[in-house]
Amino acid sequence: MGALTLSNVTKSFGATEVIAGVDLNVEHGEFCVFVGPSGCGKSTLLRMIAGLEDVSSGEVAIDGARINELAPAKREIAMVFQSYALYPHLTVRDNMGLALKQAGTPRAEIAAATGKAAQMLGLEPLMARRPAELSGGQRQRVAIGRAIVRRPKLFLFDEPLSNLDAALRVATRIEIARLHRELGATMIYVTHDQVEAMTLADKIVVLRAGRVEQVGRPMDLYNDPGNTFVAGFIGSPQMNFLKAGSLGLRSDLMGIRPEHLAISAEAGQIGGQIEGRISHVEKLGGETLVYVLTEDHGLLTVRLFGEHDYAVDATVWLSPDPARAFHFDADGLRLRG
Ligand SMILES: Nc1ncnc2c1ncn2[C@@H]1O[C@H](COP(=O)(O)OP(=O)(O)OP(=O)(O)O)[C@@H](O)[C@H]1O
C-alpha cells in the first residue's frame, strides 16, 4: 500500500507561512506531480512528507495512519534528489545496498534486491564503479536504484532530471514512467517542467504561493482549467490572454492557446481579426512559433505546424477560434458555458 493524505497541512518558517493549508489525497499506485512557479512550496511540501521538515499544523498520513511524529527513516519513504546524494567512496553496488545493510538485512537478500534493481535500470555493468566514474544520467539511475531497493511505500522525486542534458532528460523520463508501471508504486514528483508533468502524471497538483490552485488529470487541467493561473501554467507555449471587451465579448479575459490562433498575411482572410506586427519567429523544425505584437493585447504567440516563412516586422492579422476559447472574469476565474 502507499496512499497519502494531507489534511490542512501548513508550514511556517518563523512568521512566514509558506504552505497555507493543503488538502490532498494520493491514491495507492498513483503518479502525482507537484508543479508551480519557483518558491510556491513544492519542495517544502515534499520534505514534510519525507519528514525532513516538521509540519506546523495539520496531518500527514500514509494508509490512514498519522506519520507527523515518525522519524524519516521509519516512514518507508524513499526520496530521489536532483543532486543524487550518493556516497562518493562507495561503489554503485554498496550505494544501492546501504539502506538494507544498515537495517540489518541478510547479505544474500541485499544482493538479490540490488541485482534486481540493477537489472531494471541497466546498471549491471557499472556495479563496481564509484560515483565519480559515472555520467550524470548513470548517477541518477543509481539514486533511483537505491530507492527501489528499499521497497518503500512511497517514492518522492525532487526535480530528479534537472541536472541532465535534454536528451538524457527525455530518456530518463521514459525510464521513470516504465518503472512506475512495473513497480505499481505510489510516486510523488516535483518539477518545473511542463512536459514532465504532462507526460508522467496521473494527477497534477498546481501550487501557487503555498496553496493548491487545482488538482486533476493532465488533460483535464489542459482542457478545463479553473482559472487564468492554471490556464497559463499548463501548456507550452503559454496560453494567450486577450482583453475580451475590446473584441466585443461579454467576459473580461479570453484565453486562447497558440495553436488556436489563426494567422494571415492579408486582412479579411479570416473573421474577428486582430492586427499586429511580427516581433520574432522561432522555427523549431516540426513547428513554427510566431510572436506578434498587438496594440490591445500585447504580445501574442501563434503556433503553426511545419515550416513557415513569416518575416519579422511584417503586418499580420490574427483570428482566435471561438470554439476553442476560454473565458474568465475580472478575478481570473473561469466562466463556463
Ligand atoms: N529553511 C527555510 N527558511 C525560511 N524560508 C524557507 C526555508 N525553506 C524554504 N523557504 C521559503 O519557502 C518558500 C517555498 O520554498 P520551496 O523550496 O518549497 O519552493 P519550490 O516551489 O520548491 O521552489 P523551487 O521551484 O524554486 O525549488 C520560498 O519562499 C522559500 O524561500
From TrEMBL:
Keyword Plastid carried by entry: no
CDD domains: ABC_MalK_N
Domain named ABC transporter: residues: 4-234
GO molecular function: ABC-type maltose transporter activity; ATP binding; ATP hydrolysis activity
UniProt entry keywords in alphabetical sequence: ATP-binding, Nucleotide-binding, Transport
SUPFAM superfamilies on file: MOP-like, P-loop containing nucleoside triphosphate hydrolases
Top-rank lineage group of the source organism: Bacteria
InterPro entries to which the protein is assigned, alphabetical: AAA+_ATPase, ABC_transporter-like_ATP-bd, ABC_transporter-like_CS, ABC_transpr_MalK-like, ABC_transpr_MalK/UgpC-like, Mo/tungstate-bd_C_term_dom, NA-bd_OB-fold, P-loop_NTPase
Cellular component GO terms held in the UniProt record: ATP-binding cassette (ABC) transporter complex, substrate-binding subunit-containing; maltose transport complex
Recorded family membership: Belongs to the ABC transporter superfamily.
Identification of the protein by name: ABC transporter ATP-binding protein
Organism of provenance: Paracoccus siganidrum
